[in-house]
Specification:
Helix content is 45%, strand content 14%. By secondary structure, the chain is of the alpha/beta class. It has two domains: 206 residues, 3-Layer(aba) Sandwich (Rossmann fold), CATH 3.40.50.720; 34 residues, no CATH class. The chain has a seven-stranded parallel β-sheet with strand order 3-2-1-4-5-6-7, with helices on both faces. It is globular and about 55 Å long. The N and C termini lie far apart (48 Å). Nicotinamide-adenine-dinucleotide binds next to helix 1, helix 4 and helix 6.
């Protein structure tokens, strides 16, 4: 028996990157996983999880569309009877200095990262409240709440705002047996980070990745499966007394106070 055996989970942005890692690890711990993603690749990812003998299904959905989120939530509940776990992971980043950030790029990040979480939560929460059980995991970041680099004003704004959402919702649904917690990753090697590396240095993105690793006390980026294990813990009853929390997973990247002090 896995720690999530019998649980039904929804993971957004599950076609690739952190969402794929979360879906794979939740499935490994016994959950049936509904993978929601706007990208067609979601079907391939779900098939590869099923091929390992786990329960999974793909749903192509844009988290910006409330009605679409509601109809896929309805489909999951019709098929599996309930939703126990919601991992709100889908997110996008577009780098630009503040004065160069046009409204379209700003709104893309606000809409996917914030309204998307809002919509998916709205679609799933009524079933959790009815069942008096739920585990909601929100993908924030160290970017925004703790640190930031140039070009990240829109992205950092969304990730910091998600902590306000996490705490307020956690307060509101504690009486319904539902926990709400945020994960704050540092750098995890995903297609998003590969995009950021290409934007930062189109001629040598690998140098950017090596530079990131060099600044992390553990000397490497995190893996999507390490994110998955933290999400699985927060999605399981092992974390039964944790709610409204923000948990940093960054290999120590936010620890250094200076670059020069030390023996
Ligand atoms: P990624 O770009 O590798 O994957 C994101 C996934 O979200 C993709 O499958 C994409 O198709 C999907 N998606 C995008 N827009 C969507 C929409 N409108 N509706 C449904 N799905 C949509 O990114 P990632 O690095 O895996 O990031 C996943 C989450 O982790 C994001 O919320 C991101 O902000 C967060 N995060 C990532 C890192 C990191 O270092 N990779 C660090 C901190 C936080």
């Amino acid at each position: 028996m896995g720690k999530l055996t019998g649980k039904v989970a929804v993971v957004t942005g599950a076609a690739m990157g952190n969402g794929e890692g979360i879906a794979r690890v939740l499935a490994k711990h016994g959950a049936y996983v509904a993978l929601w993603d706007v990208a067609e690749k979601v079907f391939e990812t779900a098939r590869s999880i099923e091929a390992q003998g786990y329960g999974a299904a793909a749903f192509q959905v844009d988290v910006r569309m409330l009605e679409d989120c509601q109809s896929v939530a309805k489909a999951v509940i019709a098929e599996k009877g309930k939703i126990d776990i919601l991992c709100n992971n889908a997110g996008v980043v577009r780098l630009a200095h503040f004065l160069d950030m046009n409204d379209e790029l700003r709104d893309l990040q606000f809409d996917v990262n914030l309204i998307g979480v809002w919509n998916c939560t709205k679609a799933v929460l009524p079933n959790m409240k009815k069942n008096k059980y739920g585990k909601i995991v929100i993908m924030s970041s160290v970017t925004g709440p703790m640190v930031a680099d140039e070009g990240e004003t829109a992205y950092a704004t969304t990730k910091a705002a998600l902590l306000g959402f996490t705490k307020s919702l956690a307060r509101e649904v504690a009486k319904d047996g539902i926990t709400v917690n945020a994960i704050c990753p540092g750098y995890i090697l995903t297609p998003m980070v590969e995009y950021t590396a290409r934007e930062s240095n189109p001629s040598d993105p690998d140098a950017v990745i090596r530079g990131i690793a060099a600044g992390i006390p553990m000397g490497r980026l995190g893996s999507i499966l390490e994110i998955g294990e933290l999400a699985a813990f927060l999605a399981s009853d092992e974390s039964s007394y944790i709610t409204g929390a923000q948990i940093v997973i960054d290999g120590g990247s936010t620890l250094p106070e200076t670059k020069s002090v030390g023996v």
